[in-house]
Amino acid sequence: MRVAELVCKTKLNQIPREVIDYSKSLALSALGGMVSGSQIPGCKIVTRYVQRMGGNQEATVAASGFKTSVENAALANSHFAHTTEYEDDSMPEGVSAYTLFPPLFALAEKLGCPGSRVLEAFAVGYEVQSRLGIDCNNARKRGYLNLSLTGVLGVAAGAAKLLDLDVERTAWALSLAASQGCGLTRQTGTDAHFIEMGVAGRDGLAAALWASEGLTGSTSIFEGPKGFLDLKSAGEVSMPTDVVNNWGKPYRVMAVGIKSYPCCYHMQRYIQGVVDLKRAHGFRPGEVERVDVEVNPMVPQFIRYHEPRNLAEARFSMPHSLAVAILDDRITLRSFSDGRVKDQDARELRQRVKMIVHEEWQYGGSGPYPLTVILNDGTRLSKDCIQVNGQPPDLLSVEQVIQKYRLCAEPLLAADKIQESIRMTLGLEELDNVARLMGAVANPKD
Question: Is 98 strand, coil or helix?
């Protein structure tokens, strides 16, 4: 019940200004993921599924030209966003802003909420999914994916906030969502990994809607033996200690890094390292004999594809990511397309990338992150890839987030709609109705 109490008592005017401002940048990033993801082949399957399901026209399916039920819009839009692998994460808990914004936008559109309510719901939802993720963080080592495991709980909390549920019904919503939470790291590189975020979005909303109608759940689902935390942590944690003790101290929103590259978080710093070395030394692809990447034992749990066969596997392939970092002037969604995966230059360069796993290093530790590019003449270019653009404390500026959004939206939306959606998202506090924002990203350009 204590988690529900914290959700209910937190108001927008209690949330620091920097959290609100950064949340708007995260919202714009997530909106770009929703739009650009709509055209990825696996997402078109989900679009067809949602269309067949029918339902009341309550919420927009991004860049697809139709509306559906709020739950199915959450399923589709969350899946679209995740499939880009542009999602913005906080570590070590491994949860994302992309889990929250698509379903919260869908519910806010249905309810006719102002943008300020979405910002409030996002802050509490992120605090729930993040701090519960910290509480049972060892679940990740056991193969659970917190992105959806605790993400569904964040969605339920945020949705309960939008629905103005009281403490008891918010506790029911969280409890109902806890029974839906799952996610498996073994699914990386497949469509199942991407749809897990869609399912979390749909089921978190459904849990809050069920609770609003009076469907009940245990009000102590996070506490004690056989509770959510006890089971997911294999008995190591039985109380939501981080939630209760550290709520808003500071808000975990400020720990979120905005990805610069559309692939798994665990490759971001190494891509940046290659880009930095290439810029500093000017080497060309044909001059590279080998690239050595040294990682801790958590990384291969996610990064599993030496020779990817498609775009889904490429987003979890260290060899492909570093190959395109060497080959491409700019790393975009196109760098991870099916066509790029099959490109002969990329295939050849992938064979020169070696990922060295140090089992003796701390699982999921905070470094070191050694990278060595060895040239044909024997020159060794080395870098410890500590920092990457967009990851705390080196957060992206608003202008950089706008640039990321434009990269995602320009192939699909008309120029005036792009500008309109940027203005409304960065002005969410003043937006009178989120339905206007969703209308701006509803239809693909002719």
Answer: helix
